[in-house]
């Protein structure tokens, strides 16, 4: 039998900063509005600064945070500008970050990739049970309503939270892969108990508050599933 989870579950949270066309990144807008704790003995360790949309600073931040915080699980967040729903991502690829330059005009070269992640597979997937997580997340958000005006391009249907496998080949995919590689190598249980949520391009305070509520329910779902996995 797996060890029983400790009374307090520690969850590391990050959000990204601005990049081209996104001066106010809602992922950090959500992260910065989260409380320090939630019911059911959940402690949130929210990184107090937006993670730069840049490969090398992100890699350094991930390495430092996982070492210092030693979280039980983590939730990284980023924006998906064209989406009108929240999504938790399944997998991330390794050697695709030399294609798009970051806000510093840099890429993460194949040579750097090999130096940092030698031995890692091309594709990493979270070890969290996202099927169980999404089912519970949908139930928890079933009564939520979308605050945008009801236009065909803006409206979000009630309970529109989803599983996805399209994290992309920019900083969202990069931080997700880096987190899974880091926790899988150095975490408390050496398991990839890492997650990534894409959020829509939320702009108003009302929209951001919805994002906070959605994130809180996702965290509750993640922790519930994580605890169940550890005690089964």
TrEMBL record:
Q: Name one GO cellular component term.
A: cytosol
Instruction: Give the top-rank taxon of the lineage listed in the UniProt record for this protein.
Output: Eukaryota
Q: What Pfam families does the entry give?
A: Peptidase_C15
Instruction: Enumerate the UniProt keywords alphabetically.
Output: Cytoplasm, Hydrolase, Protease, Thiol protease
- Has the keyword Cytoplasm been applied to this entry? yes
Query: What Gene Ontology molecular function terms does this protein carry?
Result: pyroglutamyl-peptidase activity
Q: InterPro entries per the record?
A: Peptidase_C15, Peptidase_C15-like, Peptidase_C15-like_sf
Q: Name one GO biological process term.
A: proteolysis
What is stated as this protein's family in its record? Belongs to the peptidase C15 family.
Write down what this protein is called. Peptidase C15, pyroglutamyl peptidase I-like protein
Look up and give the organism this protein is from: Massariosphaeria phaeospora
Q: What is the lineage of its organism?
A: Eukaryota, Fungi, Dikarya, Ascomycota, Pezizomycotina
